[in-house]
Amino acid sequence: MKFFLVGGAVRDKLLNLPVKDHDWVVVGSSPEQMTRQGFQPVGQDFPVFLHPDTKEEYALARTERKSGHGYSGFVFHTTPDVTLEEDLIRRDLTINAMAEDEHGTVYDPYGGQNDLKDKLLRHVSPAFQEDPLRILRVARFAARFYHLGFRVASETLELMTSMVDRGEASYLVPERVWQETMRALSEPAPEIYFEVLSACHAMNVVMPEWVPFLEKDSTGIKALRTAAAKKASCDVRFAVTFASEKNFSKDLLTALVRRLKAPSQFSELANLTFQHSGYLIEHAEDKTAEQWLTLFENTDAFRRKERFEDFLKASSCIAKAQGKTLSESHQGRIKSLLALCLSINAKGIVAQGFTGKAVGQELRKVRVLRMQEQLDCHS
Predict the structure, then answer these.
(1) Cα dist from 345 to 99, 299, 364, whole Å
(2) Which of 1, 51, 117, 345 has the most crowded CB, counting CB atoms within 10 A?
(3) Could you report the per-residue pLDDT of 291-316, keeping only the tens digit for each?
(4) What is the CATH number of the domain that holds 67?
């Protein structure tokens, strides 16, 4: 029985990047032998075990055979005679098909190190085309490593395109598309994910409603680059892609979110950003207290303070994409105005003897007055 570190851990070590997860392959063992040594079985489709001390995942070396459509249509085979090379050849990319033994020796039967040197994302074997999820994974890796100069190998892009043209991408379930897309949005160059999927025609299959917003060098793509540079959250990055007034349609956004089964927070922020970012950006320096209060009310900022702050971040990214400015210092002043409004609450107004509708009217009046005083101090 031999243990090998595999996949992303080996790749990232060779790239001198931080290693986040350690995955292991076990050659020459069986489920019974693993259990006797204290490993805890957790795999459902094939034998995967947790180390008794580190809790890292150890999978028995396996081969696989296509048995149906989609990414789940496989039959796995695990016996002690499955070799390391047989296990590695079923992986997606050559840079993910390397292993390292306990002595630090790297096993690279499919040219992963050369592709790291050449900065290529290249498939290991024709078996790549049996799993449509790999189309999304390659696009995500392209977004992750773009800043290092990586690109998708032309033969791999051709294979991805042929998979889409044959209808394989249509078997991808919405949950997995959304999961991969969210992971891609968090990468350093998320726009590359959409660029690669467009190049192999997959965008028109898995999320066609998004296509009009993601034209090359559109406001949404520029804003997405800015959001990634600012390390904004995924929901902010999602929202800014809908920045193009020419293409925006609430119905398209609703259809996209429904197709991908995305959490409502994403569509809410995207709608909010599109509807109100223009009002925020235009003449942001000379708005009156009344105008600021109207914005706070229309964006539900008093009840959804954190969402409003995400709206500010999204709007600043859109402003930069449009060649305008919504600086950090100005965002800070807007937040201070909101904090001032929140410090003036209905309880204090009621204590002064106001009742019924008069409470709300007086609350609004006092908030406008106090905000205007603060604005005058900074003018």
Answers:
(1) 62, 18, 10
(2) 51
(3) 999 999 999 999 999 999 999 999 99
(4) 3.30.460.10
Tokens of 40: 């805890």
Residue type, 157: L
Cβ atoms of 116 and 110 closer than 8 Å: no
Residue 183, classed as helix, strand or coil, is helix
- How much of the chain is in helix, strand and coil states, percent to nearest 5? 60, 10, 30
DSSP conformation class of 105: P
- Domain range for 80: 1-112
For 62, phi then psi, to 5°, come to -145, 160
Dihedral Cα 78, 81, 87, 89, nearest 10 deg: -130
Point out the domain boundary residue: 91, 112, 133.
112
Q: Is residue 296 part of a domain?
A: yes
The answer to the question of residue 373 being in a domain is yes
In the structure, what pLDDT confidence band is assigned to residue 378 with cuts at 50, 70 and 90?
confident
Contact 29, 80 (CB under 8 A): yes
Mean pLDDT of the chain: 92
Q: Which secondary-structure segment (H or E) carries 219?
A: helix 219-229
Q: Note whether residue 49 is domain-resident.
A: yes
Phi first, then psi, for residue 57 (nearest 5°) are: -85, 135
pLDDT tier at 66, thresholds 50, 70, 90: low
Q: Is residue 87 in a domain?
A: yes
Cα angle for residues 328, 273, 237 (degrees, 5° grid): 70
pLDDT tens-digit readout, 364-377: 999 999 999 999 88
For tokens 């390397």, name the residue: 98
Confidence of residue 246 (pLDDT cuts 50, 70, 90): confident
- What is the model's pLDDT at position 87? 93
Structural domains of the chain, count: 2
